[in-house]
Amino acid sequence: MTATPHPSTSTLPRFGRRRFGALAAVGAFGLLLAACGGSGNAFSSSSSSSSSSSAAAGAGGGGKNVTVGGANFTEMEIMQHLYGQLLSKAGYSVSYKAVTAREVYEPALEKGGIDVVPEYLATMADFMNTKYNGKSAPGISSSDAQATVGKLKPILDKAGLTAFAVSPAADSNAFAVLKKFADTNNLKTLSDLGKLNKPVRLAATTECPIRPFCQPGLEKTYGLKISDLLPLGFGTPQAKQAVVSGKADLVLTGTTDATLSGLGLSLLQDDKGLQHADNLVPIVNTAAANKPDIQQALDKISQTLTTQDLTQLNAKVDA
């Protein structure tokens, strides 16, 4: 997917505003979770710290503890809380641990510091393939979600991890420019931007220069000339504002970003298929969390969630 971001540069506490919004969006998602077997009013609040106990399960957890983690950007935090609330209803005492990047939370997942993460299939597949088979190993992700998860599972087995059901909901990397700039230059695709043959200032994550679906892919597939990288994160308000203010020309965000039109930004089509099947999938520590009740809870949300749901939830937080 989706390149995992670094924290926002907001002057507010790292999780204060975003986590409150994530919880509000999760609360608004009650009807969908009711369809998953839960009650729409069972949502609890959490503190603004990066690891907080869920009040809903604290009294009756019966010693069943689970830590849900991942990266600290809007969509992943929403998913963490969706997972956590369902696990709370399944009788678990849930804590949350959102960190800056996959390079941080994936080792913690293997070691048991985190038990469950919402992941992006293609991005996770290529990350794990590189980690276990080396940088020169052929890529294993594609636009076929089931083929990708089939190739990922043997690597997860080596790492002591398990993938549950793959959701039809997906969020892939996407790149946006000012709509006015796109209209002036008749830009509809990333190929169109490459044909301008001009230096491009990119607002993205600090990992973008080494992620194959970010800067290297833009340069190799589309011939873009990335002249400067502004390390402002994945789809953060600061990254998008950099384009709005003219400090950057292009911003890395996701296909489920619902704030773009309101900011006067426009996505450029990935016309050469640089991005792969970044469907959402729960990845768990096998020893700690590969349990029937956990899988049942998380499979329900995976089967119910749609890409449109993701976009609407993101809008409730970011817009």
Characterize the structure shown.
This protein is of the alpha/beta class and 319 residues long. It is 42% helix and 18% strand. The protein contains 14 helices and ten strands. The strands form three sheets. A five-stranded mixed β-sheet has the order 7-6-8-5-9, with helices on both faces. Strands 3-10-4 form a three-stranded antiparallel β-sheet, sandwiched between helices. The chain has a two-stranded parallel sheet with strand order 1-2. Strand 6, helix 10 and strand 7 form a beta-alpha-beta unit. Helix 1 packs across helix 4. The protein is globular. The two termini are 22 Å apart. 49% of the residues are buried.
How would you briefly describe this protein structure?
The chain is α/β, with parallel strands linked by helices.
Name the assembly state: single chain
- State the strand order across the main sheet: 7-6-8-5-9
Largest sheet: 5 strands, mixed
Mean pLDDT: 84
Tally of extended strands?
10
Total number of helices? 14
List low-pLDDT spans: 1-20, 35-62
Strand content: 15-25%
Question: Which structural class is indicated by helix and strand composition?
Answer: alpha/beta
Kindly report how far apart the N and C termini lie: 22 Å
Q: Radius of gyration from the CA trace?
A: 19 Å
Q: Give the SSE order as H and E letters.
A: HHHEHEHEHHEEHHEHEHEEEHHH
So what's the overall shape? Answer: globular
